[in-house]
Amino acid sequence: MTNLAAPIIPITPIIPTTPSLPSAPTGQPLMTPPATLEPLPVAAFQAGNFKSDLKPIWCPGCGDFGVVTAITRALAAVGRPPHEIAFISGIGCSSRIPGYTTAYGFNTVHGRSLPIAQGIKLANPELLVLVAGGDGDGFSIGGGHVAHVIRRNIDLTYIVMDNQIYGLTKGQLSPTSPRGRKTVTSTFGSLEDPVNPLLYVLGYGASFVAQGSPADMPGLGRIIEQAIRFPGFAFVNVQSPCVTYGEAEQQLKAQKARIVSLESIGHDPADWASAAERAREQATKFYTGIFYRNPNPPPTYGQAVSQRQQSLQNQAVPRHDILNCFVPNH
User: What stretch of H or E contains 236?
Assistant: First the structure.
């Protein structure tokens, strides 16, 4: 079956989640589903079921190759069929990822992946919604949306590929670039302290915060799987190095030598204060694993909407009278 999980896909076809698709209006094409519509048993899903025929065009050695592999492994473990998954992204190297999967994909506007994903999740709560982007997309132009998706607790998984540089636009300073970093836009070295994504989202009140690396593929796959399964907003920061503009200490071989598993040091992910303390060490320590997982997750925004709809159901205006509500003095 034709795979249309390409970098840019209209949002309209994301809404159906059942195998039967509506007829297209006259003169408009009907989108072919992105994957086999016959649900497979959970045990039958393999990572390959979630990989599209498109070949990634990242630079050889880019960390994002490992990230997309970890994502497909996690999706296979979760067991939802591709047509029940929506993968939303912004603009940048990492934002190409939806096109490399068999899920419904939507490559949106720079920094606007989160509001688009929220709308999709609220319009069709049964969809499993993933969001992907880079450090610039998420914490520069799109940074204002992060706080609001967290406070609403929309049930989606946000995966940020943090490489401390703008790679697609040829090596400019990014929000997570360290102080002193020399780039084409900071010839004499950056005068700014970097954003700490982990502290940001913890401070905003995120209930699930984790960090991983393609240098530990099994660990990264498990982290993403747990994030997807978490009931509410989940944030995964992935240290995904840029081989073209990144520095030597950020590359996979160097990362592998520096990785310290939070589990190995006895970190309790239910302890928010401990999570914040570990996150403060981001500049000098490279921790991977789950920093914080709320042991008592609050209700999601979708659940609150559903409850509100049920409580107001008896007050609902009949459909044929809805337009009259907008007529003055009616």
Answer: strand 234-239
| Length of the chain counted residue by residue | 330
237 forms beta bridges with 160, 211
Selected residue with higher pLDDT from 4 and 295 = 295
How many other β-carbons are positioned within 10 Å of the β-carbon of residue 61? 12
Q: DSSP label at 172? A: B
Residue-wise DSSP of 116-133: HHHHHHHH-TTSEEEEEE
- Edge-to-edge strands, sheet with 208-212: 104-107, 85-89, 128-134, 157-162, 234-239, 208-212, 286-293, 259-261
Neighbours of 64 (CB within 10 A): 27
Report yes or no: 208 and 235 within 8 Å, Cβ to Cβ: yes
Query: Tokens standing for 266?
Result: 């006895």
CATH architecture of 32-326: 3-Layer(aba) Sandwich (3.40)
CB burial of 84-119 (b: ≥16 within 10 Å; e: otherwise) equals bbbbbbbbbbbbbbbbbbbbbbbbbebbbbbbbbbe
- How far, in Å, are 6, 125, 165, 279 from residue 74 at the CA level? 21, 20, 27, 24
Backbone angles phi, psi at 151, to 5 degrees: -65, -30
Q: Where are the domains of the chain?
A: 32-326
Is 227:291 a contact under the CB 8 Å cutoff? no
Provide the whole-model pTM. 0.83
pLDDT in tens, 176-221: 888 988 888 888 988 999 999 999 999 999 999 999 999 999 999 9
The closest alpha carbon to 61, from 167, 158, 186, 195, belongs to 167
* Neighbouring residues of 313: CB distance < 8 A, sequence distance ≥ 6: none
Q: How far apart are CA 138 and CA 194, in angstroms?
A: 14
Token pair, residue 187, equals 């010839």
- Measure the CA–CA gap between 212 and 63, rounded to whole angstroms: 11
